[in-house]
Amino acid sequence: LEEITLKPVQDTGNILKQGYLEKRSREHSFFGSEWQKRWCVLNRRTFYYYANEKSKQPKGTFSIEHCSARLAFHLRKDSRKRCCFELICPGKRTYEFTAPSPAEAEDWVDQIQFLLKDLSSLTIPYDEEDEEEPYNDVDSSDSANTASHNTTLNQEEPNVEMEEDDIYEVLPGKQPNKQ
């Protein structure tokens, strides 16, 4: 099982969507299950929910990897039934939410489905811990020279003299600047 570290709202990084949703509690009361307003935050891999947007500790968090998201009009019988969606996490549980509007519910589902497609893609892997090496088209044997060469590439060098094997062409009527 992967461990998810708890983070304040401001530190969750790469926030793709956030806002208030009503989350159905797991505990069922005498009147049925209750819907509680929660500040929800979605980043590249994790869904966080807080008591409110100023909360330091999330009430809960789960990885969206291997989950699925869909609109779920059957969750409510009232006028807000078209605002419902669920996140089904196999082997864990199903999280049920009500958005402020049907359009918001669709947007949450679309964002989550987009991330799930991205996470399952084999062509563009993403890992926050892995920094990608810059592309280097020069053989590794020249890497010592490459670093110093790259640092001076975009700097102006006023006293550069043209050599015979220079790659730049001198146009007719133009003389190189020699100082």
UniProtKB/TrEMBL annotation:
Q: Which organism is it from?
A: Spheniscus mendiculus (Galapagos penguin)
Q: Which UniProt keywords apply?
A: Cell membrane, Cytoplasm, Kinase, Membrane, Nucleus, Phosphoprotein, Transferase
Give the compositionally biased regions (Polar residues): 141-157
Q: Where is the PH domain?
A: 14-117
Read off the Gene3D superfamilies from this record: Pleckstrin-homology domain (PH domain)/Phosphotyrosine-binding domain (PTB)
Name under which the protein is recorded: Src kinase-associated phosphoprotein 1
- Please list the residue ranges that the record marks as compositionally biased, kind Acidic residues: 129-140, 158-168
Gene Ontology CC: one annotated term: cytoplasm
- GO MF annotations, alphabetized: kinase activity
Database matches in SUPFAM superfamilies = PH domain-like
Region called Disordered, residue ranges: 129-179
Q: Which Pfam families match?
A: PH
